[in-house]
Amino acid sequence: MKAPSPVIESDAPVFGADARARLSGIAESALAAAREQGVGAAEAAAHLSQGLAVTVRMGEVETLEQTRDKGLSVTVYFGKRSGSASTTDLSPAAVRDTVRAACTIARYTAEDPCAGLADPERLARSIPDLDLLHPWNPPVERAIELARECEAAALAVDPRITNSEGGSLSSYEGVEVYANTHGFIGTSAGTRHNLSAAVIAQDESGMQRDYWFTVSRRPDGLESAAAVGERSAQRALRRLGARKLTTRRAPVIYEAPVAASLLSHFVGAVRGESLYRGASFLIDHLGKEIFPPHVRIHEQPHLKGALGSAPFDNEGVATAPRDLVRAGVLQGYVLDSYSARKLKMQTTGNAGGVHNLTIDPGPRGLQELLKQMGTGLLVTELIGFGVNIITGDYSRGAAGFWVENGEIAYPVEEITIAGNLRDMYRGIVAVGSDVDVRGNIRTGSIWIEGVTIAGS
Questions:
Q1: Residue 143 and residue 55: Cα distance in Å, rounded?
Q2: Is residue 327 left, alpha or beta, with left meaning phi > 0 and alpha meaning psi from -120 to 50?
Q3: Domains defined for the chain, CATH in brackets
Q4: The pLDDT value given to residue 155
Q5: CA distance linking residue 215 with residue 195, whole number of Å
Q6: How confident is the model at residue 11 (pLDDT cuts 50, 70, 90)?
Q7: How far is CA 317 from the centre of its chain?
């Protein structure tokens, strides 16, 4: 059960209706200036944001940053020639200068038959309220107090917690307006709050580091500072006494927070740019089985309050729930308008990325998966980026725990997991019910039948 959440000091938006109206006016004035330059089509995105971030280390304030950001980006099209420019000055003169700069660039670029705005029939006609805006705006003193509380809770867990990389709190609020010459104008506003701690445990066997964090669009959706600190300490302590493994082949369970990386590699392989460049091991796999029949992977862009929710993508295209994988079979790619045209397909509303990509969980939690696996490796940390999306070859440093008789036997480190994503995806035995919702990819722990574990 969650411990009490931080107190909300202020829930009034920094950027209210007046700011949104101003951004809309700036975007529309950019389009008007583009028309005056004789462009065939144009799009503009204007944004305002503000944030606070504080880190406390060993009780002392280490970093404190308050930010306010604003900007405008404009893309214009003369036929199939395009040019883009941006500015952080939102004055009328700067907006006109930015449009002129984009037009100058476009006149010197080569024609690209796939360039252009999203097709008008794909644009969002209604924009649902997805409950994404929950301002917090804590005073600096309160932010520092919560970061200190988080770190202090970690240091108090055990005398073996000897050092800290800090307790941190951040709060962000932003609003963006996107408009184009098809007549589309849409506003999106959202918040994101984060509380974390990273600490170091030490005994006669050496030192180990681990961390924990909580993130939510709502301040009352965060775990308490004490709960975050305590969990970071417990995760560091359980790694003490880590051993190396001899090289072997064994089943592996990726703990939910690191299992998301397996799905991010999948997204990279079905992304339009990878496909039209011929740089993916999943080229021409549409309609083919790439996962076991029990696997379903889908987007849920309209989940209320979720971190990856969005009513429309970066081109104004309406988002919609859809299956990327059903019964193990690849149903669709991840495309924006440009990559869709290159592939002679239709945009999937993914300009800017996927939205709450979810792999359906099974009925068993992590502990039940460990018991069913019996003997194998539980991965809790991945190191490095040794993944080749062109071939599917996979090799990443890892740390975690060796499991025997369904129970954690001892921590392990300095190992490498090697295989090929084709085989790893086909080898998924089960997905846990311990779904991690702290990001845009939502997954439980993933059990893979067998991979090579390179050790000593």
A1: 9
A2: left
A3: 17-237 (3.30.2290.10), 242-456 (no CATH)
A4: 98
A5: 7
A6: low
A7: 20
